[in-house]
Amino acid sequence: MDRIIFHVDLDCFFAAVEILDHPEYKGFPVITGADPKKGKGRGVVTTCSYEAREFGLHSGMPISKAYHLCPHGIYVKSNFGRIREISSQVMKILDKYSPVFQQVGSDEAYLDMSEIAIDMNHANEIAKKIKDEVQSEVGITCSIGVAFTKSLAKIGSDCNKPNGITIINPDNYKTILSPLKITRIPGIGKKSKIYYEKHGFQLIGDFLKIPKHKMIAKFGDRGRWIYNLINGLEERKVHDSSYFYHRKSISKERTFYEDTDDYQEILSKITDLNDKIHDILEKKGILYRTISLKIRFKGYETYLRSKSFTSAIRNKQKALEVVLDLYQEFFKKKKKIRLIGLKFSNLKETVKTNQKKILDYVKNV
Where is the major localization of this protein (predicted)? Predict the structure, then answer.
């Protein structure tokens, strides 16, 4: 079975945060970045809303040029504290959907959904749920590319912006990629664009027409790289970054595809979460003293139950027994569950190493 990778890209993120905090900005050109100083400012546009893009503005444009193109726009400095806060809210939502989650900057993330999604149709339904949850819980929109490699997923997330989903599979990838400009390939910028255009390549479809051996003969290793990327032959993995630096606890959550009261399905999910967290704890040499179980029922009714030990431990089987004991209280309610989560806290490092201390491994939740 082909891999199923999501690339989630927050739409005009810096500008979206400003609009979220200032609803009166909605529908107007919003530009974040340097002070334009009435067209004499230095610096560049960080990002801008889609209304501003209609005037030709884009990220990286000199702020003075942006002002001349759109003098009536709303120019604001980015509030990086607020950006980090909103980014964290979104990433916590994304993290619970996949066992392997990789954040890239403040506004992008990859999710390996190969173990979660049955097929691309199922993946599309999950992508819709993610988009809906981000919008309802945080108040901003995102676009999602769903594909069988990381690079194709990233290309896909940019195809139906804003607030869109693009599915790229082995049957349709040439149809979707062919009309796109070669700069849509991650890694091809302004300088390399000029080089390839001199050789007659303006669209990705121009590359797709060339056999691999000719691409290599013409462009060497770069030709091999382009061929593999656009034909879905790359094997780059999604690297799990669920556990950021400076945590004092480690947690994982999963949302069920459909609300369920099936004990075996719930047990399977609990076991999977417990296994994955203990894999991390084992690698990092970390013990815990407190285990918490989070349950969210249909309708967002949420409960948290915990058990603490007198001394720190790391025992996967014991932890599973504790979690199942905590779950019995909820099982008696006979209500369908929407989300389940585990958290291990009061962490302690087992041995001294040359690596950083525990607070360099994990981040406060």
Answer: cytoplasm
Q: Tell me the per-residue pLDDT of 32-65, one tens digit each, with 9 for 90 and over.
A: 998 898 888 888 899 999 999 999 999 989 999 9
Flag whether 107 is marked binding. Answer: yes
**CB within 8 A of 179, min separation 6: which ones?**
203, 204, 205
β-strand pairing of 337-345 with 249-260: antiparallel
Q: How far is CA 36 from the centre of its chain?
A: 32
Q: Which residue in the block uniquely carries the two structure tokens 């959550």?
A: 253
Q: Is 108 a catalytic residue?
A: yes
Catalytic-role residue among 54, 108, 115, 321: 108
H helices present in 61-219, as ranges: 63-69, 80-95, 120-137, 150-157, 173-177, 190-198, 204-208, 212-219
- Write out pLDDT tens, residues 214-238: 999 999 999 999 999 999 999 889 9
Which residues lie across from 122 on neighbouring strands? Answer: none
Q: Write down all domains in the chain, each with its CATH number in brackets.
A: 5-13+81-167 (3.30.70.270), 14-79 (3.40.1170.60), 173-230 (1.10.150.20), 249-361 (3.30.1490.100)
